[in-house]
Each structure stands twice: as C-alpha cells, then as structure tokens.
Specification:
Layout lengths: L1 E5 L5 E8 L3 E7 L2 E7 L8 E7 L3 E2 L3 H8 L11 E13 L2 E10 L2 E16 L5 E12 L18 E15 L2
Antiparallel strand pairs: 1-4, 1-11, 2-3, 2-11, 3-6, 4-5, 5-7, 7-8, 8-9, 9-10, 10-11
Amino acid sequence: MATYKIDAAHSEIGFKVKHLVISTVSGNFSKFDATMEAEKSDFSDASISFEADVDSISTKSEQRDGHLKSDDFFNAEKYPKLTFKSTSIEKKDDNEYILHGDLTIRDVTKNIALKVEHGGSVLDPWGQTREGFELTGKISRKEFGLKWHALTEAGGAVVSDDVRLLINVEMVKQA
C-alpha cells in the first residue's frame, strides 16, 4: 500500500460562484491537508481523505470572507473544518476518473462526484515521487446549509446556488 500526502505549497483548493448572475467570484482555502492511499499504480483503488480549515477561506475581500465565516454560510466557529472522504473511484481511461465521496460542510454530509484528471508522475530532484491531479465538480451550497439568500431589485440572485469546485493537487509518495 502506497501512501501519498498533499504538498500544500504546490496545491490549490478553489471554488467559483456566480455573483449577481453576471460575473464570477473566485475563492480558495489556504490551510488544508489530504492523504491518498492506493495499492494499484493506476490509482483505481485509491482512498482519499481531505480537510480544509474554514477560517482560511479567502475571496480577496475581508468583508465577504467574514460573511462567509458567519452562520449565514460556513459558521467557522461551530464547524471549523470541511471534510471529504472517498467512497469509490471509477477509472474512465488512462488518466481520467470519477471520484465519489462524502463531503461534509457544517453538519451536513452529502455524497458527491468529482471528475479527476491525473496530470502525471515525476521523480523530483530529491528522489520523491510526485503525482499531479486536477479535480472539478459542482455542488449546491444550499444543500450544505449555506443558506444566505438575497435578490436584486430585478429578482436575480445575488449569489448563485451552484458552486464550482476547482482543485489542483500535488501528492508526494511517502517513504
């Protein structure tokens, strides 16, 4: 069984959400951890666990970040982490997978599916094997209790329900 740990300095945990229906706001989490275990070299039996510190959310707006940390959204004080634990993985071709797992935000856990593209493997200058992955998906924020909602005068949503997940990770094989 091979174990891989995330290289946080070379990984990004991001999201995008529509604002006022016309533009997109991007954000990320700067503090996170992930582990992957796999017996097979093609990762078709991989087991992945991930967590992010909600307090590390950043959208480049201190006021908006404070609102996201409040009970209207994540309630960082009561629910300081969001977590993901894989339940299965489907290999689609040589470098594409569908990763199924339980995502927990606040006190709500839902099974989600993420598209995974394996970007490749490399032996770094220090003799460590590194694997690159890009994960994408979409969730409904309201299904996870991120309930704040407001409408513009024209009736459009200030913040969309759909949240796109954009995750790029570099995993390092442990000795």
